[in-house]
Structures are given as C-alpha cells and as structure tokens.
Amino acid sequence: MVSIPLLLAFLAPAAFACCKPLERRSMRVHESRSSVPQGFVNQGPAAPDTVLHMRIALTQSDSAGLEDALMAVSTPGSASFGQHLSKEEVEAFVSPSQDTTDAVRTFLEQSGIQATEITPAGDWLGFQITVGEANQLFDSNFNVFKHAESGRENIVTMAYSVPADLSEHVRLVHPTISAFPKLPLITTPLVNPISQASSSSDVTPPASCTNVTTPACLQDLYNIPTAAAKSSSNNLGVAGFIEEFANKQDLSLFLKTLRPDINPATTFHLETLDNGTNSQVLADAGFEASLDIQYTVGIATGVPVTFISAGEQNFDSDLDGFLDMIRFLQFQISPPQVLTTSYGQDEDDVSPALAESLCNAYAQLGARGVSILFSSGDGGVGGGGQGLECTTFEPAFPSGCPFMTSVGATTDIPETSAFFSSGGFSNVFARPAYQAQAVAAYLKRLGTTNAGLFNTTGRAFPDVAAQGTDFEVFVDQQPFLISGTSCSSPLFAAMVSLVNAELLSAGKRPLGFLNPFLYGAAAGAFSDITTGSNPGCGTNGFPALEGWDPVTGLGTPNFSALLAAAKKAAGL
C-alpha cells in the first residue's frame, strides 16, 4: 500500500469559526437550479448545526492558455507534440491571481473563516461551516434531499449567492446546487454466475468469441501481444469507488485460469484516499473492481497496475470522490500515465460550473502526459444507466468533457453496437475542433432522426469502443460473466498502456491526452462499426453508421495499427 501523508493536509479543511457580523454587501446569485432532478424528494430544511465541508473554486489565471498548451502537446504534427508540461508549469496556468486570492480570503476572513488550500495550485480553498452559517453567508437555503431508489440523503440548496464584487473571482462554491445523492456508479448491466465446468480454462481463442470473452479472445480479436511490455516505467491506474474492492486471490485464480503464461503471483499496487481501503476478505470482493483489475493486469502484460481506492469520506459530495481523486493525483510528481474509471452519472445532475471544473482538472493531468479514460455509460441515450425516465436524451458525465476519452461497447463477432452503450452530445461542453469533421459527417448522414432530442453542437461521445459483453471474471473464487462499458474502458486502457510501453522503451514520451491523436493520426487504426443502436428515452437511440457515431465512436481498435500510428507520430 502507498501511503501519502500529504493527502490528509488537503482533504482535511481548517477548523472553522463563523460567522462574524459584517457590513452587508450587495449579493448576486452565482448558481441556481430551476428544478429538482427526477427521483428526489425534499425532506425539509437541514438542521442549522449540521457541519458542511465547503469548497470554493477560484478563477484561474489562464485556463485558456492551459487548453492551448494541452492541445499543442497532444496533437501529432505540432512542434510541441509529446513535450508534456511539468507539475509546476501546469500550476502556473491554473493558479489564481493574487488579487483573486486576496479578495476571496478577505471575504472569508471577515466572516471569521480561515480556509486552507486543497490543490497544489491554490485554485481550490476548503473550510467548514454549519448549515445555518452557510445560509447566512451565501444567501442560501439548504434542505435535505433523499433519492427514493437508493435511499441516500444529502444537503442541497437550489441557489446561492456571493457578493457582486466577488463574482468574477469565484468559479463556484461546493457542495451547493449539485450535491444530489444519486449513486454515481455506472454498473455493469449483466452479472451472471457460471459453473466451474463452463469456465473457459482452454485459453485457445474460440473461433467466434461469442460465448465467453477472455483475455485470449481479446488478444486474438484486437491483435494484442501476449509478450510482456518492453518498459515497466509506465503505470496504469484503475480508479475504485464506493467500497468496491479488488482481491489478490481472485486475480491469481484469474491468471492461473485465463493467463497461465503470466506468473500467478503477479499483483497490483494500492493507493488510497478519503480513508479508502481494499479489503482482502474474499466475500468483500466487488464485481466492478475485480473486472477492472483482472482485465488491466491480464491484458497489459508486464505493465505495473495501481488500484486507487477512494473511501466514503470524500468532500466532493455528489461526485463521490471523482474530484478528490484528481486532486490526489495532482499532488503526485509522477502520476500514472493512464487512468481508467468505470463509474459516472448523468450530466444533468452536475452543475455546469462543477462539470467544467472537473473537466479542467482532467486537462491539467492530460497536459502532464496522463490519458484519462471513462466508460461511456450503460443507459444508451438515457445516460449513465440509472433507469430513470427521460423525454430528451441524457448525456452521461463526465463523457461530455472534451479532455478525456470516452469508451463505448460492442458485442458479438462480427462486432456490432452493444444496445446499452451510452453515447450522445453534451449539453454543457461545446464540440472540440479535433472531432468537428467526424461528427459533422455523422449528423449529415443522420438527417432529421431524433431532431430536437439532443444538442447538435455539443461535444460528442464516445470516442472509441471495444468489446463489452460476457467477460469472464472471478469474484470470491467463482467465475461470473460481466457485461457493460465497464468492460470496455479497462480493456482499451490496457492497450494504451502497452503502446506507451513501446514508446517509452524507444526513449519517447507516452501518448497523454489521446483524442487529437485518435481522431487524427490514428483514425485508420479502428474497425468501423456500422450496425446496431443505443435505444433509450422511448426511442431507438442513435444508429451506428459509417464513420464516427455516438454509439461506438471511431470503432474498435486494431492494436498493431494503433501502435504503428503512435510510433509514426512520435517520429519512430
């Protein structure tokens, strides 16, 4: 286990003392919600003495400059391609100006609040106050909202204000309007136990790979090498949330059964945050964590894998540790070169300002050479797979962020779209230039289908796809078949890590933020998927058509072609 004492410093806000009487300043509504998300019930005012862990995101000095730098180091053909920024260089872009820091700190100190910096760049401040004090300080009205299906409760306000002269210095205050407590897990839609007798102990790829998906099947399907990576200096990070634990005994059995050419003692490293743990009691093993670990270790042969387990004591409320995990990695001198996450939620549940702040954090890591990958979701055009009714298409979050790579799912051989593969168009983020041509071509072919149900100018997702059905996984020493985009993201992340290993062994830099490369130099490395759709919201969803589509993205990868494109882009 990796212990990082610094984590305690930035996750534990300063002791609080609020609020001194002060002269009333002109207040302005900073963020608000017009309605409560479906499935939530207002339980009434929150108890005034309840303590809130508050966060303020400060206006960054040059976020546009960060985006320009990110695209420059990520776009093949650019003079800066591969020249990733250092931790300090990234922080110079996002650190707030001294005027901004002074203005916000003065406002808080006048109310008796001593805030602490909780990010390396100082663009987030943390402190604790009570509900009563927060209502007074931000002209807010915090109530308890309960999610009927999950039973989870959280404290939310429908609007809050900041002094009018302070609004230009504040990006957002959190948790405020976004902290609706719906489970953020993108679950695998199908988990089936299978008998030991039917477990695929024969590692020879079946002719069709249609009954059970195994590492051997995937290696055959996508031309993935079985030899160990030439360089072990890169690291593949696997994000774990909501007490999903990865078990080492299960991994060993998986390797013995399905990758007998790998030493069954091969394991993963562990890092934790927010009081996270990783219980090794077999009965505590989670389906999601087991899937993610077994198919990263089992596909990215020889690449060190780190399981990053976020605990329940997170301070980003509705994001259940997403933001905390990125902060955790921002403090590291050498974060993993690839991070895969098989969790998410619906974009509508997150305020635009919070969504943009998390997306900006992904841009910061991308500029440092980290590839951020997420499962696209398991609800078709209905979003993250939460099962709620919808009248217009619901984008999944954070797949709408333009600075990460969203991975959809396919099924069967020959491959076709998996019906559950979430895809669509963001209502928050505009379409980035790197995908403009590919998406415009799709919209032209789509014509008037689904007109009025989605944002035709939004960032489109997923970016790529991979197999996502009937993956054989061992949980509590028993074999199961698991399906979902949760299968696709760790699989593609493993392939990216193998490409990185080749680049690093040749003295080159890892790929980092992938999308400009994927839509450009690597576009020919994908098999186009032109059948199937992703139904939802009472419709057939989007059809998979020639070229990019919002079900399978650019298609499924051919590892050999992907590696060749990466080497060519790197000048090898």
Describe the structure.
It contains 14 helices and 26 strands. A hairpin with a 6-residue loop joins strand 4 and strand 5 (124-130). Strands 11, 12, 13, 14, 16, 18, 19 and 22 form an eight-stranded mixed beta sheet that branches. It has a four-stranded antiparallel beta sheet with strand order 4-5-3-9, sandwiched between helices. Strands 2-6-7 form a three-stranded antiparallel beta sheet, with no helix packed on it. The chain is an alpha/beta fold. The two termini are 37 Å apart. The model is unreliable at 1-17, 183-189 and 195-203 (pLDDT under 50). 26% of the residues lie in helices and 21% in strands. The chain folds into two domains: 6-60 and 95-174, no CATH class; 190-519, Peptidase S8/S53 domain (Rossmann fold), CATH 3.40.50.200. It has helices at 6-11, 63-74, 87-94, 98-110, 131-137, 215-222, 248-258, 287-297, 322-330, 352-367, 436-446, 485-505, 515-519, 559-569; strands at residues 27-32, 40-45, 51-58, 116-117, 124-130, 143-147, 153-156, 159-163, 170-174, 190-193, 236-240, 269-273, 305-310, 338-341, 345-346, 371-375, 396-397, 405-411, 416-417, 424-430, 458-461, 464-467, 471-475, 478-483, 526-527, 556-557. It catalyses: Release of an N-terminal tripeptide from a polypeptide. Its cofactor is Ca(2+). Residues 1-17 form the signal peptide. It comes from Phlebiopsis gigantea (strain 11061_1 CR5-6). It is an enzyme of class 3 (hydrolase).
